[in-house]
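User: For my dataset I need records formatted as: sequence, then structure tokens, nothing else. Please produce one.
Assistant:
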Amino acid sequence: MSSARVLYVIVCAAPAAASVGDFVRLAQSAEWLVRVIATPLGERFIDVSQLATLTGDRVRTDFRLPDEPDELPQADAVVVAPATFNTVNKWAAGIADTFATALLCELAGLDVPIVAVPLIKDALARHAAFARSLDILRAMGVRVLFDPQAPPQSRMPGWLRVLDELHAVAGARQPDRE
């Protein structure tokens, strides 16, 4: 798997986070080396040990200390899914108060291909700050998968669609599907 490209999957505190292992498996089958980063609250929505087993690496939530080695391989692409109202707005505003948002701010500045998949409540989707934040992220080159007209229960696309968007922005070879 040495030729695999590196994908960071950043997970926030929303219900779809519970199934992020399915996305990790899909990405791995498409020859991505996956590393999972969770927001502090997002960690409560995922099975940390399952994801560590799947990826062969720990799930990261905190900044490393100056004397600790940087163990994360350089990212070739990033998927932020599910992305919450809080994370989207902090990221767009450049607020780097968690490891996840700091990493997103840095990677956007390095022009790493990023797909953001917000999953938020209907009332929050109508908030003016959220719409502005999505515009800012798009202007930064982030591919945002969000349809405000979709019913809330189907607003987040399925993991296969997320993988397809990842391949579209990262120029990755897509695996054959039977």
